[in-house]
Amino acid sequence: MKTLARIRECISESIKLNIPRGYLEIPRFQMPQIELKDYPEFFRLLALRKISVVRIKILARELRIAQTEINFSKIREWMKSMPKGAKDKPCLISSDLYILDGNHTALSLMNRNPESKIDCYIIGLEMEELLQTVRLFDRITYKTVES
């Protein structure tokens, strides 16, 4: 006999997540990640190149997902309870509204409520050029879909 909690879990596992896609389809292991503590230094690099950075709140449904690999278990878990580190870290997005860093955070919030506003830094470059620029920053890391 299934408990009520297990029935709810089975229902939530079967719910199809809304995963909007962009046109770039970049594998997760090629998506640069920047830790929150390194944002100020990254923003200085952008300022030296005269690239604007503006902090805004943007509707979740307006963002575009550039990466192709998504950890659905992580999204479902974060929809229930967003971890503090993810909750406190604004997403980095390009001027054409692709998410550079923060895809799982944005997708969790988007699937919880598409009208929610997400804290972001919008960087004054389109995604293709932003990817080239961010790779010049020596503190980027990369993750796999499991991490």
Element layout with pairings:
Layout: H1 4-14, H2 39-48, E1 53-59, E2 64-65, H3 72-80, H4 84-88, E3 91-94, E4 98-101, H5 103-112, E5 117-123, H6 127-134
Parallel strand pairs: 2-4, 3-5
Antiparallel strand pairs: 1-5, 3-4
Record keyword descriptors for this entry.
147 residues; alpha/beta; Conserved hypothetical protein from pyrococcus furiosus pfu- 392566-001, ParB domain; 5-stranded mixed sheet; 5 strands
- The average pLDDT score comes to 84
The general outline is globular
The biggest beta sheet reads: 5 strands, mixed
Question: How large is the count of helical segments?
Answer: 6
What is the CATH level 1 assignment? Alpha Beta
- The H-and-E topology, N to C, reads as HHEEHHEEHEH
Q: Which range best describes the helical content: under 10%, 10-25%, 25-40%, 40-55%, 55-70% or over 70%?
A: 25-40%
CATH topology description: Conserved hypothetical protein from pyrococcus furiosus pfu- 392566-001, ParB domain
Q: Output the strand order for the largest sheet.
A: 1-5-3-4-2
- Strand percent estimate: 15-25%
How many DSSP E strands? 5
Distance between the ends: 34 Å
Uncertain segments of ≥5 residues (pLDDT<50)?
Answer: 1-12
How would you portray this structure in words?
The protein is of the alpha/beta class and 147 residues long. The protein has one domain: Alpha-Beta Complex (Conserved hypothetical protein from pyrococcus furiosus pfu- 392566-001, ParB domain), CATH 3.90.1530. Helices cover 36% and strands 16% of the residues. The protein is built from 6 helices and 5 strands; from the N terminus they run ααββααββαβα. The chain has helices at residues 4-14, 39-48, 72-80, 84-88, 103-112, 127-134, and strands at residues 53-59, 64-65, 91-94, 98-101, 117-123. A hairpin with a 3-residue loop joins β3 and β4 (98-101). α3 (72-80) packs across α5. The longest helix is centred in the N-terminal third of the chain and has 11 residues, at 4-14.
